[in-house]
Design brief:
Adenine glycosylase active on G-A mispairs. MutY also corrects error-prone DNA synthesis past GO lesions which are due to the oxidatively damaged form of guanine: 7,8-dihydro-8-oxoguanine (8-oxo-dGTP). The chain is α+β, with helices and mostly antiparallel strands and 373 residues long. The protein contains 14 helices and nine strands. The longest helix has 16 residues, at 92-107.
């Protein structure tokens, strides 16, 4: 496999045809395309990782209303940031966004280092492609991107064999992206590449008849559009079990614990979790003696990209509790605080009424999705 593969079309022809398509069919009125700044573009790019545009728009608008600039974001506490991220998933993105804002304020005097791809890529949560997208979209300077949509377009156009996550395949795709990226109209070109992948060259239902590269696409010529790009080799998802303690006091408030800053639901507030009923009872004996257990709720499954978590809620009531401490707090479901909540916990809390426990319904999922934007 060569590091410099041949292109299907001369770069100038590819660029002209793509931009002609974009001028008519591209997306020109997304919120982050208005009043473009490195900050607004950065927030949108982080939110768009693994998440569709239609899902991101209301989150982006709420986020901008509360944190209109990097200074406001850096000054906020993590709970407030994660509260606005609740439901968007992949919470490490929210934590890294907050960390990066503070780095920009402390190390770059509040200005994003868009003059340097390396400096942008060194910020928490920003990789090579995201750094390129921020630079291109906010400054118009030439920068190459290779997000999931671009990978899919180039993989199909050239019938690139192998999973794009493999280093050799990724190097080939970066080489193609580099050769096709123009020096002019870079904002439109990068957006056009993302739009083509998101709206026509979709994974499951590509609309080849509307594609400006239908006659050159090697995957289409072979009738193998759905074979490209090749999927990551699958491994069976392991399953874990946990008991979540729904401990209510006489006022109907629920006890929450803040998760460690790294790892599963890092920094979010969750219900106390235990491996088994013995561990849960031992915790109650120590911290909430006299607590009365109710019947367990039905087990439900929350799916992550790398494992399934079977959650069994265990309701209990207590009259008094030892000192709550910094990592615990009482939460009133009827007057919720602005804190970041793990998705299944948010659903459980919403099902509560004062002094009443009602079994939850439904299936929660936080699976990795095709990064269609």
């Amino acid at each position: 496999m060569t590091d410099h593969p041949p292109v299907v079309l001369p770069p100038e022809t590819f660029q002209r045809r793509l931009l002609d398509w974009f001028d008519v069919h591209g997306r020109h009125n997304l919120p982050w395309q208005q009043n473009r700044t490195p900050y607004r573009v950065w927030v949108s790019e982080i939110m768009l990782q693994q998440t569709q545009v239609t899902t991101v728009i209301p989150y982006f608008e709420r986020f901008m209303e509360r944190f209109p600039d990097v200074e406001a974001l850096a000054a906020a506490n993590q709970d407030e940031v994660l509260h606005l991220w609740t439901g968007l998933g992949y919470y490490a993105r929210g934590r890294n966004l907050h960390k990066a804002a503070r780095v920009v304020m402390e190390e770059h005097d509040g200005a994003f280092p868009v003059h340097s791809l390396e400096a942008m890529a060194s910020l928490p949560g920003i990789g090579r492609s995201t750094a390129g997208a921020i630079i291109a979209q906010s400054t118009g300077r030439r920068a190459v991107i290779l997000d999931g949509n671009v990978k899919r377009v180039l993989t199909r156009l050239h019938a690139v064999e192998g999973w794009p996550g493999r280093p050799a395949v990724e190097r080939r795709l970066w080489s193609l992206a580099e050769r096709y990226t123009p020096a002019e109209r870079v904002i439109d070109f990068t957006q056009a590449m993302m739009d083509l992948g998101a709206t026509l060259c979709r994974r499951g239902r590509p609309e080849c008849g509307r594609c400006p590269f239908e006659t050159e696409c090697l995957a289409h010529e072979r009738g193998e559009e759905r074979r490209f790009p090749e999927s990551k080799p699958k491994k069976a998802l392991p399953t874990r079990q946990t008991l979540m303690l729904l401990l209510l006091d006489d006022s109907g408030r629920v006890l929450l614990e803040q998760r460690p800053s790294s790892g599963l639901w890092g920094g979010l507030w969750s219900l106390p979790q235990f491996e088994d009923s013995e561990a849960l009872q031992a915790w109650l004996d120590q911290h909430a003696p006299g607590a009365e257990l109710d019947d367990e709720w039905s087990t439900f499954t929350h799916t992550f990209s790398h494992f399934r978590l079977e959650i069994t809620p265990q309701p209990a009531r207590v009259t008094c509790l030892d000192a709550v401490g910094e990592s615990r707090r009482w939460f009133d479901p009827t007057d919720p605080a602005n804190i970041g909540l793990a998705a299944p916990v948010k659903g459980l809390l919403e099902s509560l009424r004062p002094f009443t426990l009602s079994a939850p319904a439904g299936h929660a999922s936080e699976s990795a999705k095709e990064p269609s934007r």
